[in-house]
Amino acid sequence: MHRFIPHLLPILIAGLLMQGCSGARLGYANADSLVRWWIDNYLAMSPEQDALARERLASFHAWHRKTQLPDYLALLRQGRKFVAGKPTAADALLLGDGIIRRGRTLAEQATPDIADFLLTVSTEQIERMAGRQAEKNADHAKEAQLAEGESGRRKARYKRVLERAEYWFGDFSGEQKETLRQLINGQSAGSQFWYEERLRRQRDWLVLVRQVQHERPPRERIIELLRDYAARFDMPTDPTRLARAVALRRASAEIAVAIHAMSTAAQRAHAQQKLDELIRDFTELSQEA
Fold first, then answer.
1. Using the 8-state DSSP alphabet, how is residue 85 labeled?
2. pLDDT (tens digit, 9 = 90+) per residue, 9-62?
């Protein structure tokens, strides 16, 4: 289950930011159900496990609404300042760090509940989870065109970056698209590296879950193992690979700044309006009982 908290909840946050006003409200209202469905898809939970997940996720969701949504407003305002100003790569990295930091807060809050849940997971469920991971990895590798060499990976990255950019800023002109393509082609795609990091996190997770299932350690020890896993989740610990990860993050930040620089005044206004709608929506969500 911990595999999903640091990984899925930041995705849910990003998903809310990509859905707009009504989508954000609907998505957030059903976030605990979505996470429960996600876990069941990997584990095929027993009725007892489903009841435990339902209870703990409901409490987690209530905590999140009360304590975290108000904090997300600061992140949204930081994003609005980014769009309205003349941002640098350092500003873009700061935004990314803010998302990572909030993801870690979610993981820490969920850790005791995850420790309890892990004690219920069977050998069969662990193997099902490993199989589902392999299926998802194959889909991810295909979408990222990892088998197509650097050229194919850059094409996949261009498509992904353009889709996100046009969501926020509106349609790009042919000239803007070509400029973006050249920027992407001027950098290493990094897709293979991040895929390897994805596999590394999955291997570490399966080792942890199998250790818990085999040794049945005390709850406090499981919490220690989970915290150690979360600490190395975002970035590799190997110095060479860490340097590579930092360089790739920097390259992505430079692309974000370049996209902003090529946007028109109307496109920046489009992005600011979306952020204003989300700020209003998150404010209302945080005030709901």
1. S
2. 444 444 444 444 455 667 777 888 888 999 999 999 999 999 999 999 999 989
* CA distances for 46 relative to 53, 203, 213, angstroms: 10, 24, 16
* Interatomic CA distance for residues 241 and 183, integer angstroms: 24
The pTM of the whole model exceeds 0.85: yes
Burial of 18 (C-beta count, 10 Å sphere; 0-12/13-18/19+) = middle
Q: In Å, how far from its chain's centre is CA 69?
A: 16
SS3 114: helix
Radius of gyration of the chain from its Cα atoms, rounded to whole angstroms? 20
CB-based contacts of 249, cutoff 8 Å, min separation 6: 93, 96
- Cβ–Cβ under 8 Å, residues 230 and 108: yes
Q: Report residues of the chain scoring pLDDT below 50.
A: 1-21
CA–chain centroid gap for 89, Å, is: 20
Interatomic CA distance for residues 175 and 198, integer angstroms: 34
The answer to whether 122 and 213 are in contact (CB under 8 A) is yes
- Reduced to 3 states (helix: H, G, I; strand: E, B; else coil), residue 202 is helix
How far is the C-alpha of 279 from the C-alpha of 82, rounded, in Å?
15
Q: Is residue 165 a contact partner of residue 180, using CB atoms and an 8 Å limit?
A: yes
What torsion, rounded to 10 degrees, do the Cα atoms 251, 252, 258, 259 define?
160
Distance CA 150, CA 221 (A): 43
